[in-house]
Amino acid sequence: MIERGGQLALYLCDNVQQRTIQPHILDTIQAGSVVNTDEYSIYARVPAWGYTHVTVNHGDREWARDDDGDGINEVHVNTIEGVWSLLRSWLRPHRGLSQRWLPLYLAFFQAMHNIRRRGFSLLEPMLNLLLTSAPRNPG
To answer: Which SMART domains match (predicted)?
Structure first.
């Protein structure tokens, strides 16, 4: 899940079912928010969970839609699809990952994406993240 211009939240799920994704959606997305998805049936209950739900129908070759007529396509899932493209490109050189380590790869990718820095400018935020999340040694 990603908010346009906001933070990325990745979850590794055991399966693709409504009962599996519901807790992640409820914990991550503020109630009352507009949630953009494709028309995959797993998202059918999003309105019942307290969100405004808008969709694009990829099956009808709809990729984006301008609902208010201002010339800007507000309804799309291009932001998260761009993230998936970046993630696949980033993982491709590893040529297969152990399921054991996949959560760590995803967490690292999420953190680097959310820091939004590259090269040497990434060093300070990454160290701060590591130091603030490291277990404390009381002794």
So the answer is: DDE_Tnp_IS1595 (SM01126)
Q: What is the 3-state secondary structure (H, E, C) of 110-132?
A: HHHHHHCCCHHHHHHHHHHHHHH
The number of domains in the chain is 1
pTM, rounded to two decimals: 0.76
pLDDT digits (tens, 9 = 90+) for 71-112: 888 899 999 999 999 999 988 887 778 888 889 889 989 988
Of the candidates 80, 18, 10, the one whose C-alpha atom is nearest the C-alpha of residue 48 is 18
Q: Give the separation between CA 39 and CA 58, rounded to whole angstroms.
A: 7
Q: Are the C-beta atoms of residues 36 and 62 closer than 8 Å to each other?
A: no
Q: Which two tokens stand for residue 34?
A: 């507009």
**46-54: long-range contacts at Cβ-Cβ below 8 A with a sequence spacing of 24 or more?**
49/22, 49/25, 51/25
Q: By residue range, what is the domain housing residue 110?
A: 18-133
Query: Which residues make Cβ contacts (< 8 Å) with residue 34, sequence separation at least 6?
Result: 51, 52, 53, 54
* Cβ count near 21 (within 10 Å): 19
